[in-house]
Structure formats: C-alpha cells, structure tokens
C-alpha cells in the first residue's frame, strides 16, 4: 500500500510591527511615577480603611453609620489598586 504524503506546515510569522508609530512608543514607555504613587496609595488606603474599621469603626460616627459598607469601600480601594498594577511598566 502506498504511503500518504506528510504535509508540513509553514512556521507562523507575525506581521511586521510599525515601530515608529505613536501607539508602539506609548505601549513600551514606562508609566509615570505618579501612577505608581496613586496605585500604591489606593492599596494602602483600602488596607487602612479596613484596619480602622475593625479597631475603631464603632467609635467614628460616619463609619458606624456605613456599617457593612465599610468592607465594600476598603476592598474596592484595594482591588482598584491591584487592577492598576496590570498597566504598570
């Protein structure tokens, strides 16, 4: 019985990227230092919010009025800071 021919796939070559476009330069540029400060600040602020809620939330008037919403506020600040780390270069 004759053998069937083996097909060889060609290696994938991605299209050439335009290195002189503004989008390519912006994508590889490092982030601004203020971005890092805001990112870390949000994470620390969220952590501080949760710690203050646990230690003195019942004493502080507006935190006592918020009740369980304090957890949402604290975790939202932390998550936003963590999401910002995905764009940090």
Automatic annotation (TrEMBL):
Domain of life: Bacteria
Family: Belongs to the CrgA family.
GO terms of biological process kind: cell division
Lineage of the species this protein comes from: Bacteria, Bacillati, Actinomycetota, Actinomycetes, Pseudonocardiales
Segments crossing the lipid bilayer: 34-56, 62-84
Thylakoid keyword on record: no
InterPro entries (UniProt xref): CrgA (IPR009619)
Membrane disposition: Multi-pass membrane protein
Protein name: Cell division protein CrgA
UniProt function note: Involved in cell division.
Gene this protein is translated from: crgA
HAMAP family: CrgA (MF_00631)
UniProt keywords, alphabetically: Cell cycle, Cell division, Cell membrane, Membrane, Transmembrane, Transmembrane helix
Subcellular location: Cell membrane
Compositionally biased region (Basic residues): 1-10
Keyword Cell membrane: yes
Disordered, as annotated region: 1-28
């Amino acid at each position: 019985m004759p053998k069937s021919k083996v097909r060889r796939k060609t290696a994938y070559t991605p299209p050439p990227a335009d290195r002189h476009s503004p989008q390519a330069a912006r994508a590889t540029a490092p982030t601004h230092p203020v971005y890092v400060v805001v990112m870390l600040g949000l994470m620390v602020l969220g952590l501080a919010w949760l710690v203050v809620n646990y230690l003195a939330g019942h004493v502080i008037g507006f935190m006592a009025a918020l009740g369980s919403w304090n957890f949402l506020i604290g975790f939202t600040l932390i998550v936003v800071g963590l999401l910002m780390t995905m764009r940090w270069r």
